Amino acid sequence: MFTGIVEELGHVVAVSALPEQAARLVVAGPHVTADAIPGASIAVNGTCLTVVELVDGTFSADVMAETLRRTTLGALQPGDPVNLERPMAAAGRFGGHIVQGHVDGVGTIRARRPSQHWEVVEIDLPEGLARYLVAQGSITVDGVSLTVVQVVDGPQPWFAVSLIPTTLAETTLGTRAVGDRVNLEVDVLAKYVERMLAVRA
Fold first, then answer.
1. Alpha carbon distance, N-terminus to C-terminus of the chain
2. Is a pLDDT exceeding 90 seen at residue 28?
3. pLDDT bucket at 96, cuts 50 / 70 / 90
4. Contact 182/106 with Cβ under 8 angstroms?
5. Counting Cβ atoms within 10 Å, is residue 19 exposed (0-12), middle (13-18) or buried (19+)?
6. Domains of the chain (ranges plus CATH)?
7. Which of 33, 122, 139, 176 could disulfide-link to 180, CB 3.0 to 4.6 Å?
């Protein structure tokens, strides 16, 4: 389990094809690999991956075709920056919210509105996710735990978040442009509530 507090802005070192349309990523992240072992989990842009190999501050992870299809990881190229987070230790503090590293869909940045102290970013929602969002609720964007400030329904639903200077400087969200695609994970508690109410009905 993660909390959506990015520990390190790493970068992709290499991408190689594997059988059955899978891929192996090599990612540089000296901070998150300092205490990692093969078999450990590291979230890459909000996607939980398993460490296969560790070499000199880099780690390799195999990504199956389904994950490549359902996330933005399939578009990664050498040199691309990525948000990295290790799972939360049992004795750790929640800095963000409960994040599983299971991407629910891919959104598209529709607008950015900079101001002196923060920047508002609007993101189009894929079909079926709008019902899980609520203003002042939580969402994970490329692995970053954020507070939803606005939700707009309609033929193309979208939501807005406000990014503080630290988030802009220390995560990939500072350089994402209009039209870029981002991984989204909604609050898992909302999905559990929906399931329980559906069964009860």
1. 30
2. yes
3. confident
4. yes
5. exposed
6. 8-85 (2.40.30.20), 105-200 (2.40.30.20)
7. 176
CA dihedral for 30, 35, 38, 41, sign (positive or negative): negative
Q: Cα dihedral angle (166, 92, 48, 138), rounded to 10 degrees?
A: -60
State phi, psi for 199 to the nearest 5 degrees.
-65, -40
User: What is the DSSP secondary-structure string of 134-184?
Assistant: -TT-EEEETTEEEEEEEEE-SSS-EEEEEE-HHHHHHSGGGT--TT-EEEE
What are the tens digits of pLDDT across the range 153-185?
999 999 999 999 999 999 999 999 999 999 999
**Euclidean distance between CA atoms 173 and 164, whole angstroms:** 10
The yes-or-no verdict on residue 10 having pLDDT over 80 is yes
Q: Whole-angstrom Cα distance, residue 135 to residue 131?
A: 11
Produce one character per residue of 138-164: b if its CB has 16 or more CB atoms within 10 Å, e if not. Answer: bbbbbbbbbebeebeeeeebbbbbbbe
CB 60, CB 25: distance < 8 Å: yes
What the block records as the tokens of 60 is: 């390799």
Residue 95 binned pLDDT confidence (cut-offs 50, 70, 90): confident
Asked if residues 138 and 145 have their Cβ atoms less than 8 Å apart, the reply is yes
